[in-house]
């Protein structure tokens, strides 16, 4: 900073008006020399001292105004010279003038530094800041030069933009950047925005509105979106290279509005190439383009999301409503799993974004697919049954069983489709039934696979969902140990001639003999709450020894577990029968019911019995009797009628069993195999069986709803009707969706049974 010598300070005391004017003229002459690039005899130190003299003599305002007038005089001259430029040289000439003018201003600022520091700063307030010498000079240039040529400046700069958009070669690509930098430096609002940016954005709207309309009509949806992507990238590159950084989001918005938002629905519905066609032809890359381009505008993807959902529903409904697949339920489920996996892959490939190197599926598209499958899966009220049938086919021994290395992937797909099943308790019912048959008949292909699937169910839906299924495996392990003890028990000494059923303690005190049967019997003892047991009446076995062996086992078990009772589940057992009456000795693996039926024909040759006679003698429930007789009358080897164990004869042309249908043993039975499985085929239920299952499920749901209501009320003590309904629904929705009317009926039932009581019209109290 320059210092004023004391001798100078003494000299200016008592400066006259003429002396002040002379100092003023010296400074203005120096300013003229600066603008006109003339050499001056005065140095910066001398001019600084002159400024100091004038300011200290209270001539600051006069000096400030004189300097402004001098600058304005030169801007008038500058403006006249710029205006005479041709269009080809105008912009570069203006830039040259501004560069020269700004350099002159910086020199002037240096010699008038004391004026800025003393006068300008002292006369500035928070409300109004007085311009410095440099700032005032820039403002004068803006008013005297730029405002005078603003129309021409605006027109020529926008012409450069237009040429770039039309792919014309621009001689100086950095000219626009220099021009916008000049305008921003002079005044971002009054110059850059008012002269350039506002008109630039207005004309951009018009340009892209016309171009998008023209191009959309003449191109496919894919080509149009590609064009939009290219245009957007061009505008972004141009804005970063040429314009102020605040303009980038604004020009992006213009392109978004004119080329994307206006066409978000038209792109989806464009005939022959829209989103619907892309979905139909599985154009995953094109759908990716739709997601990337339309996703730039908030809400622009909504029509695409809705289209995806509707198309997904249509595809799903075509599968679940296909009458051909109703006769092949495993195919229906397989097709639905395949379809669900396709959409899962589609979401990852076409409708996803990157996050830390990982692809994340878009939540809105994922929701649309999820809701679509929620709708289609639950439109088929037998979906849970069919899903369990497919699992049964894959998990039991046979040609369709799944290999261990494929099981994990298969189970993941099953869980994926199972998430859409609303009534998960229905699936649990069927799966428990099918699992029981696999375990009890020894037809499960792999315990590891069975437990692996249960583990995935447990992980996805919680311990409570799989606790009973896991209990079935525990029972099988306990039964292994129990059968070992049962075999030892048969070898123990019992009283000779005593009736079957005496306790082992009593029989050990009498004569020695052993309990011996002409067959081996193993028993699985099942915990009632785990297994799908049902009320089964006692059937009359044709062989007395079988009944005797059952009584002995009951006594053995009751002695071992005091207070327990045994209920025989004939519908869940199996038997291996050796047949000696044919040309070869065969071994048949049959159900307990089938064993009882075959024993009826174990006596005289050519025994013929009607359906009614078999039912009366054995007392097997009609539904089970029909199923088991049907299997016995089917060829044990596919396509070979000689391999039927029983032959049937109808009194009429009916193809279904009736009470007069007659059966006899096939004494000419022949098969290439020695060991044959003739167990009833696990297939979908008929209408009567389905009604029975639904009735059982409805009954179980009543108990579950009662338990949940009581548990909630015990915890809350007092609840409003609506709040109770909502909480019950929330707790049960992972198993099934309880209708509000059903919940209301269970509340009424609990009130009648005095578990809860009503207070007022819509409030309930828990009764301890």
Detailed description of the structure:
The chain has 768 residues and is mainly alpha-helical. Helix content is 63%, strand content 6%. The protein is built from 31 helices and 13 strands. Strands 5-6-10 form a three-stranded mixed β-sheet. It has a three-stranded antiparallel β-sheet with strand order 7-9-8. A hairpin with a 3-residue loop joins β12 and β13. The longest helix is centred in the N-terminal third of the chain and has 33 residues, at 133-165. It is elongated, with a radius of gyration of 48 Å.
**Largest beta sheet: strand ordering:** 5-6-10
Number of helices: 31
Query: How many beta-strand elements?
Result: 13
> Helix coverage percent of residues?
55-70%
What is the first-to-last residue Cα distance?
Answer: 92 Å
Poorly predicted spans? 493-514
Which of globular, elongated, flat, extended, rod-shaped describes the shape? elongated
Q: Supply the helix-strand structural class.
A: mainly alpha
Biggest β-sheet, characterized?
A: 3 strands, mixed
| Content of β-strand | 5-15%
Overall average pLDDT: 86
Rg value: 48 Å
Outline the secondary-structure elements.
Blueprint: H1 6-11, H2 17-36, H3 44-56, H4 60-83, H5 87-111, H6 113-122, H7 133-165, H8 175-186, H9 188-218, H10 221-242, H11 248-260, H12 264-269, H13 275-280, H14 284-294, H15 302-320, H16 323-326, H17 329-350, E1 352-355, E2 358-361, H18 363-377, H19 383-395, H20 404-418, H21 424-440, H22 447-461, H23 463-490, E3 493-494, H24 504-507, E4 513-514, H25 544-560, E5 574-579, E6 586-591, H26 592-600, E7 608-610, H27 611-618, H28 622-632, E8 646-649, E9 662-665, E10 675-677, H29 687-716, E11 718-720, H30 721-732, H31 740-752, E12 756-759, E13 763-766
Parallel strand pairs: 6-10
Antiparallel strand pairs: 1-2, 3-4, 5-6, 7-9, 8-9, 11-13, 12-13
